[in-house]
Amino acid sequence: MRHGRPSRTDGLAAGRRDGLRVFTATRKILSRHVAYAAGIARAAVQACRTAFRACAGECGEHASLQRHCEVCAKACRRCERACTELLTSLG
Description:
It is a single chain. With 91 residues, the chain is mainly α. It has one domain (10-90). Helix content is 77%, strand content 0%.
């Protein structure tokens, strides 16, 4: 936010923070050693994949202008693919 007004990158930053929160929750659910609820785990991975897809799209729009956006978009696409593979293995 600049001078009390939202900047065009405020949405990107908020999206990345939200994605990080989704990823952190998913990591905690999947790494639980005591009880494993397959339905909840699957829903968490799906939410994680959705967050990575959204981040890749947002950062991809700025990739030609900012190198860090290009790097972020590529990383998010890799993570999205990893989530898809994990969902396949979860059945």
